[in-house]
Amino acid sequence: MSRMRILPARQTGLTLIELIITVAVFVVVVSTAGPALHKVLSNNRMVSQVNALLGDLNFARSEAIKRGERVTICQSSNQSSCTSGSNWHEGWIVVDAAGTLLRVHEPLRGGTTLTFPRGSLSYKGDGTATGLATGTFAFCDASTGTRPGKALTVSATGRVRKSSHTCS
Question: What is the pTM assigned to this prediction?
Fold first, then answer.
């Protein structure tokens, strides 16, 4: 008869030292990635907000051309009527010549400020902006201080272009 030797089963799992080292590496990685992740999320939020206004400006212009009449996009703190001021981060609306609401945008979130030198911008039936040589919508993130922001510049012809903006 041959003798069979029974080998002890191998242990699986982590030792306490391995677990502590793993947790320490995880903490270092998270602490260095956290600020960068905040910057990425903040930038993505602002890009989304810029694109929302860009879409509404293009919508207002195309509606003015389609209807052959004035269409206005204006700052609105109550999302039902135009209000005076240059704090567009409180929201805006798009209305036709009769005052009918065509689009509504809620206030911006995440500490983004949006300013424009006027409380409204109107497009004539030919798509040109009224009473405007050029105007710039300036987006700034209040939590980042002087970091560059984003801007939308509207020309007298009504065309909108994206650009960067220095926030103060």
Answer: 0.79
